[in-house]
Amino acid sequence: MKPYEPVARLAPVPGQRIKNAMTCDVEDYFQVSAFAPYIDRASWPARECRVEANIERILALYERHGVKATFFTLGWIAERYPQMVKQIVAAGHELASHGYGHLRASDQTQAEFSNDIRSAKALLEDIGGQAVLGYRAPSFSIGHANLWALEALHDAGYRYSSSIYPIAHDHYGMPDAPRFAFYPHGPDGLLEVPVTTVNMFGRNLPAGGGGYFRLLPYALSRWMMQKVNREDGQPALFYFHPWELDPGQPRPEGLDAKSRFRHYVNIERMEGRLERLARDFAWDRMDRIFLDKK
Fold first, then answer.
1. DSSP class of 38
2. Which residue from 11, 31, 219, 245 has the fewest beta carbons nearer than 10 Å?
């Protein structure tokens, strides 16, 4: 892999904690990529949507702890719940793009991808009334085979992406990618900000949220993020989904054991763990942490 240009380590400020990036991928339970073999995309409009109520709980949690965050939002969701999007923006959070219909970047042609990211950006900006600078590919689906997507994002007016996960995973991952924010095509191009990992035993281990955060003991997740702040001098990037706070969500029939485990493990504990996470670290939006820090 070519040596991409990294962003400089943060200089520690005496008496201040490093601010970490809190992010939420705004999609509903039936849009999860692992459920695609079981839930027909054509059935989405008829399914019970629970995203509004879950976002309200998340916004209330952030308000309690003074957390500002970035919401990577599907255009499909924003189109149907514009008031929810406006509520996110009104609370001082960053609105970013998760594409329109939760299609993996790796499953699209270059023309299809370009159309998706441009239409989602325009839709979100129209509803939210603010510039959309960031993008996260569904299922972290940018890797060696489609790095052209990063140039397409830059051409579409995005300033940063959070779409490459430097781990080995059966659904995604680019283990040899840099662990921290880097410029794939130089400092005048797009900034890529990977989800947080720690390097142990010669490999990158996930430390930035998702199902791993629900599976692992909270103390271990906290230790890994503290290690990144303390030893690497870098902000951690955490992500989760609104459906992860919703034990009462409808459960599709016929799921294979792996998908069922990954989706539902410790889901009833997630909100409590987020409360602890909000207290234990300093948090802010992606744009305020990573942009213009050359």
1. T
2. 11
Class for domain 19-291, per CATH? Answer: alpha beta
% of the chain beyond a pLDDT of 70: 93
| Cα(138)–Cα(135) distance, integer angstroms | 10
Token digits for 139? 């299922």
* DSSP, res 242: G
- What residues form DSSP beta bridges with 73? 26, 97
Per the rule left: phi > 0, alpha: psi between -120 and 50, beta: everything else, 281 is beta
- Residue with the two structure tokens 């255009």: 75
Residue 193 DSSP symbol:
-
Eight-state DSSP code of residue 201: T
Q: How far apart are CA 58 and CA 65, in angstroms?
A: 11
Kindly tell me if the per-residue pLDDT of 23 is higher than 90. Answer: yes
Compute the residue count for the chain: 294
Residue 34 is predicted with a pLDDT of 87
pLDDT, tens digit (0-9, with 9 covering 90-100), for 81-135: 999 999 999 999 999 999 999 999 999 999 999 999 999 999 999 999 999 999 9
CA distance 193 to 290: 8
Which pLDDT value is given to residue 235?
Answer: 96
The residue whose two tokens read 């695609």 is 36
Phi, psi of 165 (to 5 degrees): -110, 115
Please give the DSSP secondary-structure letter assigned to residue 17. P
Q: Which of 68, 65, 53 is nearest to 21 (CA)?
A: 68
Q: Residue 55 is encoded by which pair of tokens?
A: 């976002």
Token representation of residue 252:
């599709």
